[in-house]
Fold this sequence. Notes:
By secondary structure, the chain is an alpha+beta fold. The chain folds into three domains: 12-108, no CATH class; 124-218, Beta-Lactamase, CATH 3.30.450; 223-288, Orthogonal Bundle (Arc Repressor Mutant, subunit A). 41% of the residues lie in helices and 20% in strands. It is built from ten helices and eight strands. The protein has helices at residues 12-21, 46-52, 86-108, 139-148, 160-173, 220-230, 235-245, 250-257, 261-275, 280-288; strands at 33-35, 57-67, 70-80, 124-128, 134-137, 182-188, 191-199, 211-217. A five-stranded antiparallel beta sheet has the order 5-4-8-7-6. A hairpin with a 5-residue loop joins strand 4 and strand 5 (134-137).
Amino acid sequence: MGCSPIADVPCLPELIRLKYLTEVNRWTALDDVALLGAYPDPARSLLWRELLHAHGVRDIASMVFKDRFGCWGFLDLYRYHQDFTRAEASYLAHLTAPVTTALRRSQAETFVVRPSDAPRPGPLVLLLSPDLRVLGQTLETHAYLSLLVPPEHGRPPVPASAYNVAAQLLAVEARVDANPPRSRVHLADGLWLTLRAARIGDAAPLDRRDIAVTIEETSPTERLAVFTRAFALSPREGDLLGHLAKGGDSHTVARQMFLSEHTVQDHLKSIFAKTSTHNRRTLLTRALGA
């Protein structure tokens, strides 16, 4: 439901809030596809009961795109007037593997060598109300959010990723999910940002405190973790890349990993092939963003 490139959803913050608070068919517990219509009691879905049902949605097909390297996205398809069929669910399940691979590869392609004079963003802050309404933001925040999602006239440039981390904070507080309220997103030209959400103030009850979403450049360590998974590196290859990022040469890395230098070179050749790089300098520049 996206176009131009913003989805026309007037209730987007509320939809995201309910999506994260809903335990039924939550993407973090799915393997491929699940149908709300096949659930014993669809009304247990907070998202459907409090929002989508009023808009005439009859069924929801929830998909998750994940592999052994990580979760790369999720998708909800809404249907009016009738339920999804088992045959349709089977067809959607057949699509999850190739779409997952494509999503992972698209993330890998964002790791390009950044210009040496590229500006580095300072800490950016967005202030949201407990129900995820935008209350304020720093001046520089507006500029960076406009790059993430070009705003339409009269709309604040707030990407879904900012709402997502705030909604995940609510999910953690409600004990729906234990993952931290943090998100990493590519901005442009190899620059990755990390978004985090936290309550501010202590005068009001926890659920009535405002939410601060901080946005800053992703650290080299976090970049390296995403880079390793996006390029489908093996555990050994990931360990090797981590040692190289700390400045180790082949001899030192071989000793630290209890491998021969010949084996280290074999792993390094495999990493070069998977990442389309030809030397350590380019590999580390792409992986670390510096």
